[in-house]
Amino acid sequence: MFGSDDIAIDLGTASVLCVIKGKGIVLREPAVVAVDKATRGILAVGEDAQRMLGRTPAGILAIRPLKEGVIGDYDLTEKMLRYFMRKVVGKRTLFRPRTVVCVPGGVTEFERRSMVDILLDAGARKAQLVDEPLAAAVGAGLDVTQAYGTMVLDVGGGTADLAVLSLGRVIVGNTVKIAGDRFDEAITRYVRRKHNLMIGERTAEELKITIGAAMTRGDKLTMEATGRSLITGLPKTISLGSDEMVEALDEPLQEFIENVHALLERTPPELAADIFERGITMTGGASQLFGFDQYITKYLKVSCRVAEDPEGCVAIGMGRMLEDKDALGGLLSEGKRR
Length: 338
Fold this sequence. Notes:
By secondary structure, the protein is α+β, with helices and mostly antiparallel strands.
């Protein structure tokens, strides 16, 4: 039975969320680490490291240890997790919590075991895993234990998990690298191509969050962006509009639609009928892009909605699994070392 200090961790490409049973989400920070290149020593983690992105001197590197939903740097991921776990449970040096962590639907068995190794090396006493789409669906308030089809699109920073669920398992699923980071890259390319301006990663993300849109907005928004002119080599500031963001994001969004359509084609007919009746649920931080759900409804002719607190759905879902072990504990699997 889980104790009050057992931790559920949503370890994402862009952010890390931690949940403690009975207390809800207790930590929500960027998955960024600032490292001294010479010594590999950790200089900052989370929000402090996020502020350094694109602004560090030559000897310091601010990076995300997870790439496209999987572990890119084992050592840095372990140190980042250890930092967050200590921040959550305090300085009880002898306390080793039991943990639950989500894994993207498309990871290999080797990657699942690597995740377990990292959790145990970071100080966990026991590690359990849950498929990310299942946790997202539970966090969105969907009953995944019944015998009907549920479709969840969990669009995060590095990857999007597309899944059809029934009876507590993923029936058909796919993990695609069309998510928040891909949208940022599309905006960067557009600004470079249309305005001869090179902008940074953080500026592209701010444009996406502030004026980004999948569909034309009724209220036209604008935002100033500063970068380096590719013509003069000097700093330059331009004004960009939300309609330009629609144009910039059309290519990755069309590719996203194609992948969802392909998954629906692989879905058993009875479950597909359930989805057309009940609609699609979106979770994940990147699902908050303005008009994203309307865009999916328009092209797939299936109703689509964004869950409440989409960024926290996976963490909330794992928290509910900790709370209701009898009904939802079967969705968890025991983690094993490599």
